Amino acid sequence: MLNYVWTALIILGLAAALTTDIQNSIHDPYKNGTPIPVTIVLKGNTAASQKKADANLIIHKTEYSQHFTESADNDLMFQTQIDTSIHSKRIPVAWTLTNDAPKKISEIAKASGKDNDITGELEITSYDTQQKILSANLYFEEVSFVKMKDVTTASLHYAETAVEIALGLIGIMALWLGIMKIAEDAGIIRFLAKGLRPLTKFLFPEVPADHPAIGSIVMNISANILGLGNAATPFGLKAMEELDTLNKEKGTATNAMCTFLAINTAGMTLIPATAIALRATAGSSQPAIIIGTSLFGSFCATIVGILSAKILENFPLKGKSFSGLFQDKWKSFVVLIGIIAIPFILVATGLISMKSAAGSSSNSLKEVLQLVSIFAIPFLILFFIGYGMLKKVKVYEKFIEGAKEGFNIAIRIIPYLVAMLVAIGIFRSGGAMNWLIYGFRHITDPIGMPAEALPMALMRPLSGSGALGVMAEIMSVHGPDSFIGVLTSTFYGSSETTFYVLAVYFGAVNIKRTRHALAAGLLADVAGVLGALFIVRMLFGV
Fold first, then answer.
1. What's 22-45 look like in SS3?
2. What are phi and psi of 21, to 5 degrees?
């Protein structure tokens, strides 16, 4: 499945980029070869012996608007230097852009690979020697294949980012798998697994109750719920390795792996710390108000992810119709739906009743969970090592043994991360994301999802950093406490980066046939988005 998804991301990204560039070459939005009138005001001493003179380059807002068909609020002024010793028809000029530079000029600079610096040529038309003012025509550097250049830049950037992520995991992996090895030898993992045996037996019936994978799964899910993402990843990677020991068909995902990935892609957590921090930075008066809405959204995602994995693992049907499958397992379906319905009703009722006190309740919950997040990791390290010493475990030697394993896992996932992140970078920078948004609007408009929030819903499964950037941009435009601001930040807290999780976890054990894991993960993402939309409209709807 990932073969088709990976190829589609690259092809669609390149197709979108090439299509946009061809359209730009026809419509010429950057006015290549067409000059724009400017005014040059010389500063200081401009004696004949002085070759270069400091100057202000001024583009009047009316001239800019007519040239680029893009409005400008004020006249544009840039600091530059003019070489007065050049007497040719055109004089080269360069300057550095400020952060508030207009969109078209910024795109011209970016297309040349300079980001903040821009060059051009001046054609002097008149010179007032008394006022030291020159009138001139400015020719910007020619721009072509902007999107294809963006694709190239994004490919290199995301490849570098993938390696940085993997290398950054080495220390964390070594630490937590070292601690995990101590906990395993001390018997802590067996104790946790025994306490959660009814749940794990239902979720992973093919995994023996005393298998080491169960302990890693329990620790991974616990760390995710507590918001300890750095601790959850090593446990998850360890769980995948242990599950692979039960895999009779190497390279193909087992049912247990798919269910475990569905739970991880749902990303259920008690406190979406990153989204809350960004809301606070954006000036929200109640940054933690999304705790309840994100919990509801991620709860919906988790339930649908598990249910999808359990249903899809029965396919292909091997000659049996879906109605035949339902007839054989209808009791299980009814029981499962009944179990799911009760917590859905309880959570929705609880959140609605708390609406009037949402601010104070979420702030109190935030403070408690922040304390848990601060002390959880030091406590776990101290407890595991201390308990290990009481059980006569050689804690240092066992830690080193587990840490070596963490190093190997982190290095092994680099190719998978590079492949997936580069494909996502091409898809996004090429403009295919805009195509996807346009196509999905016909679905989202009838259900009341604002078009402004759609990029966030589509970006979240693809890229965590990309989704963070989209969310920051939306909140800067609409405000963090607006309906759209709350909705997009709830989207962020209601699911995980599905493609990243699949690439990392399956890459750790060289899984090439992912079976239904991607489908279950994407269904969980859809459920998270719909659950977030439902609860945010109910509590803060317009």
1. HHHHHHCCCCCCCCEEEEEEECCC
2. -65, -40
